Every structure is written in C-alpha cells, then in structure tokens.
Amino acid sequence: MKTLIMIALLSLLTIAKPLHIDEILTQRDSFKLDISVSYSNIQRANGVSLPYTYQTENGDFVSVPTYFGSAKSNQDYLNYSLSLRYGVTKDIEFFTSANLYSSNTHSTLSNFFDTNSNKGFNSLNFGVTYQLKSESETPSLLFGLSINALDRTRFRDMTLVSKFKSYRVFTTSFYTVDPVVFLLNASYGVNLKKEFEDTSLDNGDIFTLTPQVYFAVNPYTSLNWGVKYTYYSENKIDGKQISSKSSNVSFLMGMSYEFSAKTIFNINAEYLNANNITQNSISTTFSYKF
Question: Residue 58: what pLDDT?
C-alpha cells in the first residue's frame, strides 16, 4: 500500500505544473482581474504612536487608521483591493488598483477606554511592469513602478487626502527547479510629506524583501512558504521625528488552486511580532483572466 501511495505522489510531482510567467505578467492583449480581501488583527503596545503601513496582496502600501498616540490598542482591519492588469506586449503590463478598508479599534490608556470605527476609500494607483529578462538557465527578472494618484490617511483625529505623494518601485525574480519555484520580490516605497491645514505627516520610506518557495503539489495546487523583511525609515509629524529607523521580519505561508486556465484562487497568511506590534493576517485573492 505504501508503495502505491509513493508511486501516486511521484506521478503527481512528475506532471506538476511550475509557476508560469503569465501568472505574474499578463499575456499580450489580455486582461487580468484580481479581487482581494485581507483581514488583519493588529495589536500595539503602549507608546507606539507611529502611523502604521500595510502592504496589500498586490503590493500596494496603504495607511492603516491610527488613533491614540500613546495608547495600547487592538485593531481589526479589513482591506478590499481591486486590481486590473493589461498585457501590452509579452514583456510589458499596465495595471491600476483601488483599495478600500474598514477598521475597528479598541484603545486603552490608563483607565480610559475608547472605540473607533472607520471605513472608506484608501488609495488609487497606476503602474507598469516590464520583464527585463525571461527565465532560461538563469532566473527571470521583472521591474515595475507604481504611483498613488490619490491617498487617504486617517491619523489621530485627522483625515489627510493627498495626490501623487507615494511611489513604489519593485523587482521580481524567479527560477524553476520543477516542481519547486524560488521567487524573490523587493519593493521600495517612497512617501513625500503630506500636509493638512497646519499639520504635516511624513511616513518615511519603506523597503521590503520577500524570498519565497513555491511547491507544486499537483497540476492545480501549489503551496508556498517564505519570510518578509521590512525596513522603515524615520516618521515625522510637523517636522518632528516621532519614530526612528526600524526593521522586522514576518513569516508567510499560503496555497494556490487553479480552477481553470482562467481562474485562480489564492489564500495567504502572515505573522509578525516585532517592535511592540503583533499582526496576524489572512488574505484571499480571486484572479480571472479574460
């Protein structure tokens, strides 16, 4: 019986399908729609007053609503992301994405308790991805740029709306050793100063480096594991530094299932516990090619 099971598993691995470039880059003259819903529970210790940034499934950096500057808080955060991609050529893809959110935060400061709820629009961005090199005996290499045309940031009792204040450059590389795919992604987010009446907010820049391993279980299912290193530069309010440079490492795992050649479902989880912040996240993404 064990022999039969091993033969069946080896047969599945033999026909397992590796990651294809069209799962990262949209095919020429084709569209791809990604719909993502992500839930995060974010717990902050007393004294953590900096604005918190969350990276969505499509790579966008968005601002999570932040309230008390020095209170301990427990926050439930939902991100809703809609991304549309178009393959201009076999090596160039244009994309646009919109992010909405809802948030519920319980804060505690000494004997004072407060609850804040907020929802609405978060960001709208446009971008382009270019394949510099296709995969051969050496790894593939892709490069991209995105611009936030519109941003909405909720911080303490203020809502800051800004245009063209956030930019992101990113690169992706992967290499296949069937049925395993090694993938490396790096992103650098640049945030310009945001101003609202007599208040200014400078979120600082963010760098992420994410190595992952994808394993094809069968022709339709793959599993992935990885880590994400994140570096933050200092944050400033009204020109005054409120946090210094910092970094952390979170742990990732997920699964992908292909219902058809046009339809893919992904579920991913992330765990972070560093710098007095604990974050547990789970994200689902539905992708459709047309």
Answer: 86
